[in-house]
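Lab channel / #folding
Pinned by the channel admin:
"Please post every new chain as: sequence first, then the structure tokens as a reply. Keep commentary short and put observations after the output so the thread stays searchable."

First post following the new format, from NK:
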Amino acid sequence: MSFHPNDIARRTRLSTIALTVGFLVLTGAFFNAQILDHAKYAMQSEENRLRSIPVPAPRGIIYDLRGDIIAENLPGYSVSILSPRVDSLRATLSRLSQIIPITPREIENAVRRFRRAPNRPTVVLADASIDVVSVLEEHRLDYPQMIIQSVPKRYYPDGPLVASFVGYTGEITETELNLPKYAGYKPGQIVGKGGLEKEYEAVLHGKEGVKFDEVDARGRPVRTSSMRPDISPVPAPAMKTNIDMKLQRQVAAIFSDTLMGGAIAMDPKTGAVLALYSNPSFDPNRFTGGIPVDYWKELNTDPRKPLFNKVIQGTYPPASTYKLATATIALQNKLVRLDEHMPISCTGGMQYGRRYFRCWEKRGHGSLDLKGAIMKSCDVYFYQLGIRIGLSNLVAGGISLGMREKSGIDLPNEYSPVFPYKDVKEYYNRKYGAGNWSNSESLNLSIGQGNNSQTVANMAKFYAALATDGHNAKPFLVNRKPERKQILNLTPEQLARVRLALAGVVSEGGTAGGSRIEGLVIAGKTGTAQNPPNPDHAWFVGFAPADNPVILVAVFLEFGQHGWSAARVASRIMGYYTGKLPAEVVVTE
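Reply from TO:
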């Protein structure tokens, strides 16, 4: 086959053009890479041989009002692996498990972290012991992708004594990573999981730093690079609370191992929380670096529920502590006077409709005025007062006093109280069915039983209004402007006489007479909450000194049986705080 000379020439020209275009394209690419994008590719080249290692920031130290440490940071160690793929990570961890204890759960957790952030070192052991670190250091050359670094480790000097309000820290979860609150967080980072640690996470977290190490082609460290300066972590600022650790320790000592329940102590004028304790407690230090499986199981299977905060999460019938709400509702509506006696004297109970409603005192109290009914906690008096007020007004009055609201304390996961809503008929029809209830519900509600369950914190908030000028005080642990709201429309004289009646509960032969302290006038109210078929619960909410209180204490004892047992605890807390009792007083039943 022969080619015409013109064909050969044409093909030669085409080949020359193609070669010229190809040369120009290559020249342009080289120019772009070496001149225009030099900085970009130089950076990429540098990053290919520089290993970036995140450096955790120390969390903010938490102090009490005097400067005692509640939460701090101690030196710890973490072990991480840089790996290109999941199978490579699994292989490395499998080899590591032959020299140090690594559980299958820890391996799966590491794989999960890698999949979420493959370019970050994968945390394998968040809190490695010095023994494990020593073993790994001996094998460092065998694991060039392994990173052992010193990290801040959260520590609580008083452990279980502060767990009720400080909470604990732990690794951020997949669910949390998807929340807007944690935008910018990375897998393996530590966050607050409860208490102040969680509530003030944004304040306590700090800003992560970065350390750059130079590595060879196999990822082995060569030297600490000076070509790019490290970015130092920014520690979070310290946080001061209103907690009085001396008082907190005393409260824990009083509860000891024998009493179950909770207590809160606060300044009734401002709401500043001085102590908050739920018993039994748990050790937040055991949660650092990951909760041991056996400890987690122990906490969750304990019938006493140590993880359940009985001050802000437990909702219980307030019993006779609620009689002060009934009394103030009646006084505000001018339905009773403090010196007024009821038509029916207490003989141990009273008939209402087809049901006989008993008083806690089977022998009866006789004829009492309102002051005496508060002191003696006479159910029959308050039954009649509840009937006089009426169910709708009782509910509306309770709502105005905050009985359907959370206390607003600056701690996460506070539970809402249980209380009827304003449309009483609809509420009880939904609860029991139309025609299956009657106005006798007002008798139960008037003495703090029935459809009424409150938190310890919320009852403390209500009593702050009785202790002062009718304004309640939202409880808070971290310093802020006090939030007070007027909820009582009583005259100064009425408030003074109500406080006098509450003082009589303790000092004039009332239901808490056994809790008197020489030289200290305590005002407060006991409560014994029905809890069938189990023993009754015990309540006491009070303040001291009665005429100018500096401390308000609310105590709840699970299965405490009698309100006076809670009064003993509360009086000793107030006695210690005011200097009328020595430290280390332990109450036993």
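NK: Residues 5-36 form the longest helix (32 residues).
TO: also worth noting, The CA atoms of residues 154 and 443 lie 51 Å apart.
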